[in-house]
Amino acid sequence: MPDSNQTSLRRAPRAVPSVPDLDPVIHQRVRLGILSALAAGGTTSFTDLKTVLDLTDGNLSVHARKLEDAGYLEVRKSFADRTPLTEYALTEAGRVALEAYLDQMEALIQTARPS
Questions:
Q1: d(CA 90, CA 42)
Q2: Please, is 4 exposed, middle or buried when counting C-beta atoms within 10 Å of its C-beta (0-12, 13-18, 19+)?
Q3: Which residues does the UniProt record annotate as the domain Winged helix DNA-binding (predicted)?
């Protein structure tokens, strides 16, 4: 049998904010990091992106491929002093998708944060 004092300490239920359908391609820590880094820094080399995000070669490659398949980034391969150079750039579709995702998250945070 519940104690009558415990029952009186319960709070009235609050309205639950609606959670938008977030883009599943972006809604992953590494992929969000890649898109954010490219949005902030422009075209970035594989090595620099790997260092900034503290990722392994394989982890960066897999997540970059998913973003490339979605059309959110493009890959440019070339040589610099006979050394292979891979660079990533955000596409217009990637920039639009990232902005929509950030708008959804900002609205969710505003709804969920107590005023």
A1: 7
A2: exposed
A3: 30-109
Token pair 């820094």: residue: 41
72 contacts 113 by C-beta, under 8 angstroms: no
With a cut of 50, list the residues of the chain below it in pLDDT.
1
What is the third-level CATH fold of 29-112?
A: Arc Repressor Mutant, subunit A (1.10.10)
CA 24, 29, 30, 32 torsion-angle sign: positive
pLDDT number for residue 4: 52
Domain extent listing, the chain: 29-112
- Say if residues 33 and 72 touch (Cβ distance below 8 Å): no
Distances (CA, A) of 5 to 9, 14, 86, 92: 7, 21, 65, 58
**pTM, two decimal places:** 0.82
